Amino acid sequence: MRLTPAELHARATQLQALLSPCRLCPRACRVDRRTGQRGACHLGPLLRVFCTNLHFGEEPPITGSQGSGTVFFTGCHLHCVFCQNFAFSHLGNGVDMSPETLAARMLELQRRGAHNINWVTPTAQVALAVEALAIARERGLSIPLVYNCSGYESVEVLRLLDGVVDVYLPDAKYASSQPAARLSGAPDYPQVNQAAIREMWRQVGPLQLDAQGIAQRGLLVRHLVLPHGLAETHLVLRMLWHECGPNLAVSLMHQYFPAHRAKAYPEIARRISWDEYEAALHALDHYGFSIAYIQEWEDDEDEAC
Ligand code: SF4
Protein backbone atom coordinates (compact mmCIF):
# COMPACT_ATOMS: atom_id res chain seq x y z
CA MET A 1 0.00 0.00 0.00
CA ARG A 2 1.37 3.39 -1.04
CA LEU A 3 1.94 6.02 1.67
CA THR A 4 0.10 9.34 1.60
CA PRO A 5 2.11 12.54 0.99
CA ALA A 6 1.93 13.34 4.72
CA GLU A 7 3.33 9.91 5.54
CA LEU A 8 6.03 10.39 2.91
CA HIS A 9 7.11 13.66 4.55
CA ALA A 10 7.34 11.78 7.86
CA ARG A 11 9.48 9.04 6.28
CA ALA A 12 11.74 11.68 4.74
CA THR A 13 12.26 13.18 8.21
CA GLN A 14 13.15 9.74 9.61
CA LEU A 15 15.59 9.16 6.74
CA GLN A 16 17.19 12.58 7.23
CA ALA A 17 17.93 11.65 10.83
CA LEU A 18 20.15 8.89 9.41
CA LEU A 19 22.42 11.53 7.83
CA SER A 20 23.98 12.60 11.10
CA PRO A 21 25.84 10.48 11.82
CA CYS A 22 25.40 9.03 8.34
CA ARG A 23 24.29 5.43 8.07
CA LEU A 24 22.16 5.71 4.97
CA CYS A 25 24.07 2.85 3.41
CA PRO A 26 25.87 -0.24 4.75
CA ARG A 27 29.20 1.60 4.90
CA ALA A 28 27.87 3.54 7.91
CA CYS A 29 30.66 6.15 7.72
CA ARG A 30 29.05 8.03 10.64
CA VAL A 31 30.12 11.44 9.30
CA ASP A 32 27.71 14.31 9.84
CA ARG A 33 26.39 14.86 6.31
CA ARG A 34 24.05 17.62 7.49
CA THR A 35 27.02 19.81 8.47
CA GLY A 36 28.86 19.14 5.24
CA GLN A 37 31.11 16.25 6.27
CA ARG A 38 31.59 13.71 3.51
CA GLY A 39 31.98 9.96 3.69
CA ALA A 40 32.83 7.25 1.18
CA CYS A 41 30.19 8.50 -1.28
CA HIS A 42 31.70 12.03 -1.25
CA LEU A 43 28.20 13.50 -1.04
CA GLY A 44 27.28 16.43 1.17
CA PRO A 45 24.03 17.78 2.59
CA LEU A 46 22.34 18.73 -0.71
CA LEU A 47 20.60 16.73 -3.41
CA ARG A 48 22.90 16.37 -6.41
CA VAL A 49 21.57 15.09 -9.75
CA PHE A 50 23.39 14.47 -13.03
CA CYS A 51 20.29 14.65 -15.26
CA THR A 52 16.65 13.70 -15.61
CA ASN A 53 15.30 12.34 -18.87
CA LEU A 54 13.20 9.75 -20.63
CA HIS A 55 15.32 6.61 -20.93
CA PHE A 56 14.74 3.69 -23.28
CA GLY A 57 17.49 1.27 -22.24
CA GLU A 58 15.87 -0.60 -19.35
CA GLU A 59 14.02 -3.93 -19.39
CA PRO A 60 10.69 -3.96 -21.34
CA PRO A 61 8.38 -3.60 -18.28
CA ILE A 62 10.36 -0.54 -17.17
CA THR A 63 10.93 1.16 -20.54
CA GLY A 64 7.60 0.29 -22.19
CA SER A 65 6.80 2.23 -25.35
CA GLN A 66 7.14 5.73 -23.90
CA GLY A 67 10.27 5.47 -21.82
CA SER A 68 11.23 5.45 -18.18
CA GLY A 69 11.36 8.81 -16.39
CA THR A 70 14.90 8.50 -15.14
CA VAL A 71 16.65 10.51 -12.44
CA PHE A 72 20.41 9.87 -12.53
CA PHE A 73 21.71 10.76 -9.08
CA THR A 74 25.29 11.91 -8.67
CA GLY A 75 27.60 9.80 -6.50
CA CYS A 76 27.62 6.22 -5.32
CA HIS A 77 28.54 4.46 -2.11
CA LEU A 78 29.76 1.34 -3.96
CA HIS A 79 33.15 1.73 -5.67
CA CYS A 80 33.02 -0.55 -8.71
CA VAL A 81 36.20 -0.21 -10.74
CA PHE A 82 34.20 -1.05 -13.90
CA CYS A 83 31.38 1.46 -13.31
CA GLN A 84 29.67 2.36 -16.57
CA ASN A 85 28.25 5.57 -15.06
CA PHE A 86 31.53 6.75 -13.56
CA ALA A 87 31.24 10.28 -14.99
CA PHE A 88 28.53 11.09 -12.48
CA SER A 89 28.72 8.17 -10.05
CA HIS A 90 32.41 8.70 -9.24
CA LEU A 91 33.58 11.99 -10.75
CA GLY A 92 30.83 14.04 -9.11
CA ASN A 93 29.33 15.57 -12.25
CA GLY A 94 25.87 17.01 -11.64
CA VAL A 95 24.07 19.98 -10.15
CA ASP A 96 22.82 20.64 -6.66
CA MET A 97 19.05 21.02 -6.55
CA SER A 98 16.31 21.44 -3.99
CA PRO A 99 13.65 18.79 -3.35
CA GLU A 100 11.14 21.23 -4.92
CA THR A 101 13.16 21.32 -8.14
CA LEU A 102 13.47 17.53 -8.27
CA ALA A 103 9.71 17.24 -7.65
CA ALA A 104 9.09 19.58 -10.61
CA ARG A 105 11.45 17.51 -12.79
CA MET A 106 9.60 14.30 -11.91
CA LEU A 107 6.24 15.90 -12.70
CA GLU A 108 7.66 17.06 -16.04
CA LEU A 109 8.71 13.48 -16.84
CA GLN A 110 5.17 12.31 -16.07
CA ARG A 111 3.78 15.02 -18.37
CA ARG A 112 6.12 13.77 -21.13
CA GLY A 113 4.55 10.32 -20.89
CA ALA A 114 7.01 8.42 -18.70
CA HIS A 115 5.69 5.08 -17.46
CA ASN A 116 7.45 5.48 -14.13
CA ILE A 117 9.96 7.53 -12.15
CA ASN A 118 13.22 5.60 -12.16
CA TRP A 119 15.74 6.62 -9.47
CA VAL A 120 19.18 5.44 -10.57
CA THR A 121 21.65 5.00 -7.67
CA PRO A 122 19.50 6.83 -5.11
CA THR A 123 20.84 5.14 -1.96
CA ALA A 124 23.17 7.83 -0.66
CA GLN A 125 20.63 10.57 -1.39
CA VAL A 126 17.42 8.82 -0.50
CA ALA A 127 16.45 11.11 2.40
CA LEU A 128 15.99 14.24 0.27
CA ALA A 129 14.77 12.20 -2.69
CA VAL A 130 11.84 10.96 -0.59
CA GLU A 131 11.15 14.57 0.41
CA ALA A 132 11.01 15.43 -3.30
CA LEU A 133 8.67 12.48 -3.89
CA ALA A 134 6.34 13.69 -1.12
CA ILE A 135 6.10 17.09 -2.80
CA ALA A 136 5.57 15.55 -6.23
CA ARG A 137 2.85 13.17 -4.99
CA GLU A 138 1.07 16.17 -3.39
CA ARG A 139 1.15 17.85 -6.81
CA GLY A 140 -0.22 14.91 -8.77
CA LEU A 141 2.61 12.48 -9.45
CA SER A 142 0.85 9.13 -9.83
CA ILE A 143 3.18 6.84 -11.82
CA PRO A 144 5.14 4.07 -10.04
CA LEU A 145 8.49 4.73 -8.37
CA VAL A 146 11.32 2.41 -9.44
CA TYR A 147 14.28 2.08 -7.06
CA ASN A 148 17.20 1.20 -9.35
CA CYS A 149 20.15 0.43 -7.11
CA SER A 150 23.37 -1.54 -6.68
CA GLY A 151 21.77 -3.90 -4.17
CA TYR A 152 24.26 -2.83 -1.49
CA GLU A 153 21.55 -1.49 0.81
CA SER A 154 20.86 -1.11 4.50
CA VAL A 155 17.87 -3.11 5.72
CA GLU A 156 17.14 -0.34 8.26
CA VAL A 157 16.78 2.15 5.38
CA LEU A 158 14.80 -0.27 3.23
CA ARG A 159 12.25 -0.68 6.02
CA LEU A 160 11.68 3.07 5.82
CA LEU A 161 11.00 2.69 2.10
CA ASP A 162 8.14 0.25 2.67
CA GLY A 163 5.13 1.94 1.02
CA VAL A 164 7.42 4.45 -0.74
CA VAL A 165 8.90 2.26 -3.48
CA ASP A 166 6.64 0.46 -5.96
CA VAL A 167 9.24 -1.47 -7.95
CA TYR A 168 12.66 -2.50 -6.67
CA LEU A 169 15.29 -2.95 -9.39
CA PRO A 170 18.46 -3.99 -7.52
CA ASP A 171 21.62 -5.66 -8.73
CA ALA A 172 22.85 -8.97 -7.36
CA LYS A 173 26.51 -8.63 -8.33
CA TYR A 174 28.62 -11.17 -6.45
CA ALA A 175 28.38 -14.39 -4.50
CA SER A 176 31.81 -14.16 -2.82
CA SER A 177 33.73 -11.62 -0.79
CA GLN A 178 36.96 -11.73 -2.75
CA PRO A 179 35.71 -10.26 -6.05
CA ALA A 180 33.35 -7.95 -4.17
CA ALA A 181 36.27 -6.54 -2.20
CA ARG A 182 38.66 -6.26 -5.13
CA LEU A 183 36.23 -4.93 -7.74
CA SER A 184 33.74 -2.93 -5.63
CA GLY A 185 35.49 -2.26 -2.33
CA ALA A 186 32.76 -4.08 -0.41
CA PRO A 187 33.78 -7.49 0.95
CA ASP A 188 30.44 -7.85 2.73
CA TYR A 189 28.45 -7.31 -0.48
CA PRO A 190 27.12 -10.90 -0.74
CA GLN A 191 25.62 -10.99 2.77
CA VAL A 192 24.36 -7.38 2.62
CA ASN A 193 22.82 -7.96 -0.80
CA GLN A 194 21.09 -11.17 0.30
CA ALA A 195 19.51 -9.44 3.31
CA ALA A 196 18.45 -6.49 1.15
CA ILE A 197 16.79 -8.71 -1.44
CA ARG A 198 14.99 -10.62 1.30
CA GLU A 199 13.55 -7.32 2.62
CA MET A 200 12.61 -6.03 -0.85
CA TRP A 201 10.83 -9.30 -1.62
CA ARG A 202 8.97 -9.11 1.69
CA GLN A 203 7.75 -5.63 0.79
CA VAL A 204 6.73 -5.91 -2.84
CA GLY A 205 6.84 -9.60 -3.91
CA PRO A 206 6.56 -10.77 -7.53
CA LEU A 207 6.60 -8.35 -10.43
CA GLN A 208 3.09 -7.17 -11.31
CA LEU A 209 2.44 -5.86 -14.83
CA ASP A 210 -0.51 -3.85 -16.14
CA ALA A 211 -2.41 -4.67 -19.35
CA GLN A 212 0.32 -2.94 -21.38
CA GLY A 213 3.05 -5.00 -19.72
CA ILE A 214 4.37 -2.11 -17.60
CA ALA A 215 5.62 -2.88 -14.09
CA GLN A 216 3.37 -1.48 -11.36
CA ARG A 217 4.86 -3.19 -8.34
CA GLY A 218 7.30 -5.93 -7.42
CA LEU A 219 10.92 -7.00 -7.51
CA LEU A 220 13.10 -7.40 -10.61
CA VAL A 221 16.72 -8.40 -9.88
CA ARG A 222 19.55 -7.68 -12.31
CA HIS A 223 22.72 -9.72 -12.63
CA LEU A 224 25.64 -8.61 -14.79
CA VAL A 225 27.77 -11.49 -16.05
CA LEU A 226 31.50 -10.73 -15.61
CA PRO A 227 34.52 -12.18 -17.45
CA HIS A 228 36.11 -15.37 -16.11
CA GLY A 229 33.00 -16.22 -14.09
CA LEU A 230 33.91 -13.61 -11.46
CA ALA A 231 30.27 -12.84 -10.73
CA GLU A 232 29.66 -16.55 -9.98
CA THR A 233 26.31 -16.38 -11.73
CA HIS A 234 25.21 -19.87 -10.71
CA LEU A 235 25.71 -19.09 -7.01
CA VAL A 236 23.97 -15.71 -7.28
CA LEU A 237 20.96 -17.34 -8.97
CA ARG A 238 20.93 -20.04 -6.30
CA MET A 239 20.78 -17.35 -3.60
CA LEU A 240 17.92 -15.60 -5.41
CA TRP A 241 16.02 -18.88 -5.70
CA HIS A 242 16.60 -19.57 -2.02
CA GLU A 243 15.32 -16.11 -0.99
CA CYS A 244 12.46 -15.61 -3.42
CA GLY A 245 11.64 -18.89 -5.18
CA PRO A 246 10.48 -19.37 -8.78
CA ASN A 247 8.19 -16.33 -8.98
CA LEU A 248 11.05 -13.86 -8.95
CA ALA A 249 11.75 -11.82 -12.11
CA VAL A 250 15.43 -11.87 -13.12
CA SER A 251 17.36 -9.91 -15.74
CA LEU A 252 20.58 -11.54 -16.95
CA MET A 253 22.83 -8.99 -18.63
CA HIS A 254 25.90 -9.43 -20.86
CA GLN A 255 26.53 -5.71 -21.47
CA TYR A 256 29.71 -5.60 -19.39
CA PHE A 257 32.56 -3.63 -20.92
CA PRO A 258 35.78 -2.47 -19.25
CA ALA A 259 34.79 1.09 -18.31
CA HIS A 260 36.28 3.45 -15.70
CA ARG A 261 39.40 1.78 -14.17
CA ALA A 262 38.72 -1.78 -15.38
CA LYS A 263 41.65 -1.86 -17.81
CA ALA A 264 43.95 -1.84 -14.79
CA TYR A 265 42.45 -5.16 -13.65
CA PRO A 266 43.56 -7.87 -16.11
CA GLU A 267 40.78 -10.26 -15.16
CA ILE A 268 38.06 -7.80 -16.25
CA ALA A 269 39.88 -5.93 -19.02
CA ARG A 270 37.68 -7.39 -21.77
CA ARG A 271 34.03 -7.99 -22.61
CA ILE A 272 32.53 -11.37 -21.83
CA SER A 273 32.60 -14.13 -24.43
CA TRP A 274 29.59 -15.94 -25.88
CA ASP A 275 30.67 -19.09 -24.00
CA GLU A 276 30.54 -17.18 -20.71
CA TYR A 277 27.09 -15.79 -21.44
CA GLU A 278 25.84 -19.17 -22.64
CA ALA A 279 26.98 -20.75 -19.37
CA ALA A 280 25.04 -18.06 -17.49
CA LEU A 281 21.95 -18.76 -19.63
CA HIS A 282 22.20 -22.46 -18.77
CA ALA A 283 22.28 -21.55 -15.09
CA LEU A 284 19.20 -19.37 -15.57
CA ASP A 285 17.43 -22.28 -17.31
CA HIS A 286 18.38 -24.55 -14.44
CA TYR A 287 16.50 -22.42 -11.91
CA GLY A 288 13.54 -21.64 -14.18
CA PHE A 289 12.44 -18.29 -12.80
CA SER A 290 8.96 -17.44 -14.06
CA ILE A 291 10.01 -14.13 -15.64
CA ALA A 292 13.49 -13.82 -17.12
CA TYR A 293 14.90 -11.08 -19.34
CA ILE A 294 17.98 -11.79 -21.40
CA GLN A 295 19.93 -9.60 -23.80
CA GLU A 296 20.32 -10.46 -27.48
CA TRP A 297 23.84 -11.38 -28.48
CA GLU A 298 25.22 -9.43 -31.44
CA ASP A 299 27.54 -11.39 -33.75
CA ASP A 300 30.36 -8.87 -33.46
CA GLU A 301 30.49 -9.00 -29.66
CA ASP A 302 33.03 -11.82 -29.58
CA GLU A 303 35.31 -9.69 -31.77
CA ALA A 304 35.25 -6.97 -29.13
CA CYS A 305 36.67 -9.32 -26.50
S1 SF4 B 1 25.65 7.37 2.32
FE1 SF4 B 1 27.77 8.09 2.00
S2 SF4 B 1 28.39 9.07 3.93
FE2 SF4 B 1 26.52 7.87 4.32
S3 SF4 B 1 27.22 5.90 5.10
FE3 SF4 B 1 26.98 5.67 2.89
S4 SF4 B 1 28.97 6.19 1.93
FE4 SF4 B 1 28.99 6.91 4.07
The molecules bound to the chains, other than polymers, are: iron/sulfur cluster
Give the number of domains.
1
CATH H-level superfamily title: Aldolase class I
Instruction: State the distance separating the first and last CA atoms.
Output: 46 Å
What is Rg? 18 Å
Give me the strand/helix succession.
HEHEHEHEHEHEHHEEHEHE
Number of strands: 10
Per CATH, the class reads Alpha Beta
- State the share of residues found in helices, binned by percent: 25-40%
How can the largest sheet be summarized?
A: 10 strands, mixed
Spans of 5+ residues with little confidence (pLDDT < 50)? none
Strand content: 15-25%
Count of DSSP helices? 10
Question: What is the third-level CATH name, the topology?
Answer: TIM Barrel
Shape: globular
Structural class estimated from helices and strands: alpha/beta
CATH architecture label name: Alpha-Beta Barrel
Describe the structure concisely.
The protein has 305 residues and is an alpha/beta fold. The chain contains 10 helices and 10 strands. Iron/sulfur cluster (SF4) is lined by residues 22-25, 27-29, 31, 33, 39-41, 43, 77, 124.
List keywords for this structure.
10-stranded mixed beta sheet; alpha/beta; TIM Barrel; 305 residues; binds iron/sulfur cluster
